[in-house]
Design brief:
The chain is α/β, with parallel strands linked by helices. 28% of the residues lie in helices and 25% in strands. The longest helix is centred in the last third of the chain and has 16 residues, at 160-175.
Length: 240
């Protein structure tokens, strides 16, 4: 893999046992520190693609090469909570990194501070808001020193404050030069942060370029609503 690329996906196909073709000849590359939005309607293959990149499943054919292990933020934030408190939850992953007790504690506190959850470190994790739970998942990934993070529909089931919290953490990750992939159909909330915009439809990549170029396409043909129908410019496409 070339040093400038964090991820290279080459001609990937995924066919399930019932014959369903989830991904068909998908190829793209993402550079280190690049913020990528992958848009697609339900059933487009977004979640399958995430599972393959994260090595949760194997492609039927093709190859996926990554220079960094990806950290995942699932659509169901509750499914990622393992500890009673945020401090305990973030500690779970870090314990596998071989850190001694004092260093481990410092790493956990740092990650909670980075995600704005330090004041809630002893709260009951499952009682937190949806936005806070997604930030907690990010804290767990940051504590393990992951520099490549994938978000699957990060705005699902969130209220307005929760959406703002998630947008704020996404903006922070971009400023910190993390490699980020956001899989979503809600472009109006995050596209302004993107360096790259990919459209996935029926298992195939239909567009791969800049957000500005993508918004000039007829996105409705791929069952995606063009956010500029409602918003005036690219700068409006982040909810903060």
């Amino acid at each position: 893999m070339k040093n400038e690329f964090c991820l290279e996906v080459s001609n990937v196909r995924k066919i399930f046992q019932d014959g369903t073709i989830a991904l068909d000849g998908v190829s793209f590359s993402i550079r280190h520190g690049e913020f990528t939005v992958v848009a697609g309607s339900n059933g487009s293959g977004k979640s399958v693609l995430m599972s393959l990149i994260a090595n949760l499943e194997e492609p039927t054919s093709g190859s996926i090469a990554s220079s960094s292990r990806a950290g995942l933020i699932f659509q169901d934030a509750d499914a990622q909570i393992l500890g009673e408190t945020p401090e305990e939850d973030v500690s779970f992953g870090v314990k596998n990194c071989g850190l001694k007790k004092e260093a481990l504690s410092e790493q956990v506190i740092k990650a909670l501070e980075q995600t704005g959850l330090l004041d809630k470190k002893n709260s009951y994790a499952r009682s937190m808001s949806g936005g806070e739970k997604r930030r907690l998942a990010v804290a767990g990934i940051l504590a393990m020193n992951r520099s490549f993070i994938i978000f699957d529909e990060p705005f699902a089931n969130l209220d307005w404050p929760g959406v703002k919290q998630v947008c704020a953490i996404l903006k922070k990750l971009k400023l910190e030069k993390k490699t980020v992939i956001v899989l979503t159909h809600e472009l109006e909330k995050v596209l302004a942060l993107a360096d790259r915009f990919i459209v996935l439809d029926k298992g195939k990549i239909q567009f791969n370029g800049t957000p500005q170029e993508g918004l000039e396409k007829n996105l409705e043909q791929w069952s995606i609503r063009n956010p500029l129908v409602q918003y005036k410019s690219m700068d409006d496409l982040i909810w903060l």
